[in-house]
Amino acid sequence: MLEIFLTRIILPVYQSACRAAADHCRKKGRSITKLAMQYSLMNNEISTILVGMNSSEQVDWIFWAFAFYAAYPYYCLMNK
Questions:
Q1: Tens of pLDDT along the chain (80 residues)?
Q2: Do 53 and 68 fall into the same domain?
Q3: How far apart are CA 15 and CA 35, in angstroms?
Q4: Long-range contacts at 22-25 (CB < 8 A, ≥ 24 apart)
Q5: pTM of the full structure
Q6: Are residues 36 and 5 in the same domain?
Q7: Domain span including residue 18
Q8: What is the rounded distance in angstroms from the CA atom of residue 47 to the CA atom of residue 41?
């Protein structure tokens, strides 16, 4: 019963929200990946972040973002 609830009710809601967030970022010319990382770095309740990267540019951006948000914890790049 729980499996049916999760796959037929909860999963479509999350998929819809994710699509809406990705569309919003695309329309604004922003990266959903960077939005997710920014949220994770700025949220004090998240103690561990697991990321996957497929290029050295992504690695560079992650290190830059971590250092930047450590120095400026309330600055929001997505609004700029």
A1: 667 767 777 788 888 988 998 999 999 998 888 888 888 877 888 888 887 778 888 888 888 877 877 777 666 655 54
A2: yes
A3: 17
A4: 25/78
A5: 0.55
A6: no
A7: 1-28
A8: 9
